[in-house]
Amino acid sequence: MAITSVIGGQWGDEGKGKIVDFLSENVGIVARYQGGANAGHTVYIGEQKIVLHQIPSGILRQDCITIMGNGMVLDPVGLVDEMNMLNNLNIETKNRIHIALNTSIVTPIHKAIDRASETATNNRIGTTCKGIGPTYVDKYNRVGIRAFDLLNIKSLKEKITARLKVAENNNELIGISISSIKLELEEFYKAVTQIAPYVKDTFTLLHEQIKNGVNVLVEGAQGTLLDIDHGTYPFVTSSNPTSGGITTGLGLPISKIDRNIGIIKAYTTRVGKGPFPTELFDDDGKQLSNIGNEFGATTGRPRRCGWFDGIAAKYSCQINGFTEVALTKLDILDTFEEIKVCVEYEINGKTTKSLPSVMHRLDEVKPIYETIPGWNKPTCEVEHFNELPLRAKEYIGYLSDLMETPIKIISIGPERNQIISR
Ligand code: IMP
């Protein structure tokens, strides 16, 4: 029996979906512990591209069941869409999706508040507008709707009607038509009746299965630098994607995790607003964006691209306690003559290797780069680590030294088989 966690080590979009899919081969349960439909986990199976937003990627493995933990904020309408998409691909969802009784629920009101906040106020974060922040606000304000509320539609409707009144009275819905929310609510209630049978005591299920020796994979969404506590606040998401979130978001003690894998891209990307020290605005940035096809899986927004940030990556390894790193999208660097890696930040004429010491002024730091020669050879068909070009191996070794963490998995393309482990 083994419990493995997979956590984004940068600003999200590191390619977690593919790594979770790869690791879930002999796993009985894949569980998510935070976030919601703001995630977009892309998996390619042959020609088929599958994007999952809420359902853990383990659903794509026949023998796997999935748990959506209490730390998540779950959108019933989005969940039904996702289940329909999977059913159309002949992937069974019945008895394979389990929603914790105390998972927070995103309603059309929360999505509307998110949209209003992004368009009509000065508090613009560049969110995905999926209602994530407003749902967590209600959770922590102790007025949230939880999955067990879906089991009693009459009292659910009363709670939602009351919440809508509060939102109107508090001017939370500036610029949003109330009648459009009411229409969305009809669809919401339909979705609720469809997903209610999936709500159950996942805590007991998870712990019993672990006792029975079932392998478990814990799937993070977003990334360490989007963490509400440890990320680039306020330009963060509203949950804890870092390993600490596993304990609270699933009721699974961190001491149970055997293998804690950080997913880190061979360069850096970010969607939405906020500081990004190694961001590129030149041809190299365009090349990363084009070759890497860097567009958000959830919103379609172009991702900002930049060189590997060794300071941020090491910080991420420290916070999460990664036992190893899976390096993704190495192949995107195949055609670069030279590759840069940020090894220090400069601010006010002083240099630092500590991200937390400059977190509050991250938009002012200047990255200091080490330049590494590129390998200029395709890597996408390589099957074993030793077959990689020497300079690619050196690059991997260099990043590993910077992060003080071994790189044990390397992804070299979007397909299920384009992966090297060592
Ligand atoms: P929210 O999570 O929708 O509230 O968005 C807050 C910030 O996190 C925005 O900058 C989003 O672009 C970013 N974000 C949220 N989810 C993801 C993700 O899965 N990948 C990358 N960025 C994300």
Describe this entry's structure for a reader.
The protein is built from 12 helices and 20 strands. The protein has about 425 residues and is of the alpha/beta class. It has 3 domains: about 5-95 and about 200-260, Adenylosuccinate Synthetase, subunit A, domain 1 (Adenylosuccinate Synthetase, Chain A, domain 1, 3-Layer(aba) Sandwich), CATH 3.40.440.10; about 105-195, Adenylosuccinate Synthetase, subunit A, domain 2, CATH 1.10.300.10; about 265-420, Adenylosuccinate Synthetase, subunit A, domain 3 (Adenylosuccinate Synthetase, Chain A, domain 3), CATH 3.90.170.10. The protein has a 10-stranded mixed beta sheet with strand order 9-7-5-2-10-1-11-15-19-20, with helices on both faces. Strands 14, 16, 17 and 18 form a 4-stranded mixed beta sheet that branches. Strands 3-4 form a two-stranded antiparallel sheet. Helix 2 packs across helix 6. It is globular and about 65 Å long. The model has no long low-confidence stretch (mean pLDDT about 95). The site of inosinic acid (IMP) has 21 residues, from helix 4.
The kinds of small molecule bound in this structure are: inosinic acid
Q: Radius of gyration, Cα only, in angstroms?
A: 21 Å
Return residue spans where pLDDT drops below 50 for at least 5 consecutive residues.
Answer: none
From the coordinates shown, what is the CATH architecture of the largest domain? Alpha-Beta Complex
